[in-house]
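Lecture 7, part B: from sequences to assemblies.

Below are the input chains for today's worked example.
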Amino acid sequence: MMEFMEGSHAVAHSVKHCRPEVIAAYPITPQTHIVEALAEMVANCHLDAEYITVESEFSALSACLGASAAGSRVYSATTSQGLALMFEVCFNCAGMRMPVVMSIVNRALGAPLSIWNDQQDSISLRDSGWLQFYAEDNQEAADLHYLAYKVAEDRNVLLPAFVCFDGFILSHTYEPVDMLTQEQADSYLPRYTPVQRLDSTDPISFGLFASPDYYMEFRYQIDQAVKGAAKTIAMAGREFGEMFGRDYSNLVESYRLDDADCAIVAMGSICGTVKDAIDEMRKDGKKVGLLRLRSFRPFPNKEVRSALSGVNCVAVLDKNISLGTKGAVALEVRDALYGQQVPVLDYIIALGGRDVRKKDIRAVVDMAGQGKGDLFHGLRQELVS
Amino acid sequence: MTGESCGLFEYGHRACGGCAAAMAARTILDAAGKDTIIVSATGCMEVFSTPYPETAWKVPWIHSLFENNSAVASGIVASLKKQGRKEKVIALGGDGATFDIGILCLSGAFERGHDFVYICYDNEAYMNTGIQRSGATPYDASTTTSPAGKCSTGNRRPKKDLPMILAAHGAPYVATASVAYLPDLKKKVEKAIATEGPCYLQVHAPCCTGWGFEGEKTMTIGKLAIETGLWVNYEMEDGKVTRVKKVVRKPVEVYLKEQRRFRHLFKPKLNETEIAKIQAVADRNAERFGIDIKLKK
Ligand SMILES: Cc1ncc(C[n+]2csc(CCOP(=O)(O)OP(=O)(O)O)c2C)c(N)n1
Ligand SMILES: [Mg+2]
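Predicted structure of the full complex, as structure tokens:
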């Protein structure tokens, strides 16, 4: 049913439909509306979950880890500083193969302190073993939560997953969203049955320490699981499409790429602006297209390679920066295209909520055409020169 | 001591001979029984009991990190509640995990009132990483980060009073115990489990390796701590001290001189001033808890 909803509320409703049994979260802007909405649902018996009002994000994810190990479907949400505080637990959840699903309402990391959007927070956890999905709009943000649980809990995957969507730009924006009903959600996502759990009738030990004789094999298996998740995502995404008409089987989305000379690569809400700019540039005779990454982990190497094989230049918009080198997306796109001749240029853009307009996208495409890139776009020159 | 152990924590662990923490673990499980989930913090206990692919735990056991066992336990308690399951949850941590790095999670879990038992095995330093000081290290103990030296008499601060901090959280049952008195420890674990809400037990666990004494003396050292008044076994119910182990007190030297960590107070020459300060700690404990048995002449 179509509803006009704030992004955070759409996500909260999807989460409710997923029937998490234990929720543990700590408030931080711009994630607050989600956890407030869930608290209200629990308070009014619209959602039958244990809601743990933890004293920190570190405890939020730790509690989720414990509840997941005990056999419950769990949920948390955070952003920025909160995610940074969870760093240690993030690696732990993935290493212990706990299918925790967490919304990341993307926000910049301090210093300087900023509550506004970029994607530095989740990108910085790219090595942690969590799956990472990025939504373009509120519809997708809502839908990806069902997909995330389905994939994370799959016996071939058993990994935690981030559903990332841009803070304020999506979280605080009202858009029409086609919400599933509870019955539809239940038919897509069955009740959670853990593969193993803490259980006194069948005691096992979780979280042992591994000597050099064993450690590497664990890491290898996690890596295999992240890579292998692509197959499960394809299946779960196709099933979602068949049931509800929105297909998420592809880890990437191509927009007007078929005959494009220049391809833009980006993730998240910026892609809406990019698509509009592309439509305008196309009218001017510029053959520009977009490759949007919906999944950053697993990284869609194959898809990137095949989607970008025909283009003459690639302009990557990175809402993050691996300080001292480049944006993370550009580095990985370059890696995916290794051995091909196409230049991949990186544009660090929209950090800390800096606005991006269609004219910025045009400017980037112009620069890419001249071979000029690997730079911050949109800087106030008077402040940096 | 506590009769036949039910063996829920037994074979395969690699603790030092005479390790008090291992004795505590066995006694705790003897009291708790098999329907118990243990949540361990990183530290000696976790490392010596679970070298992959082996485990010494015959009950469900989980370890996540050094400082989050209370939060992990919170999640487990919530999950069990949601599932309608009745297992007991015991979080186990060393003094470093409990007094220092994990106090945020511990405070949060106690304030929220989860029904679980937190047991700190207190060996008064970070033993797993090589005997560094913690907030539980007693005054003047020499550790690798508070070494006695030409201008140092060891650890500069007295032990943090964590039981009182947790009692102030409204914990219904807070108690201290010692591996030197295992039947008492067992009773306290049983009581903590039977009490609804978050309960805290702090168990004195002399560490032969870290404190510097022979492994066969663990019980003797533990007893001396109590007999000198440097460790007090007591129980608090709803914030009030309800039971205290009384002793005929001995001077603190008899405890100190048995341990390498206090050797600098005796050699190269007797440091009477510092020993007097430690005696004052014991005297304060004695007064505060009323532990002295007055002998009738
Ligand atoms: C975040 C973090 N900091 C530091 C460490 C290193 N570390 C592991 S165990 C430990 C000390 C444990 O001390 P305690 O809790 O007293 O347990 P014990 O080893 O004495 O039994 C330290 C410092 C760690 N594992 N994690
Ligand atoms: Mg210790």
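Note for the exam: The mean pLDDT of chain B is 96. Keep this in mind when comparing with the next example.
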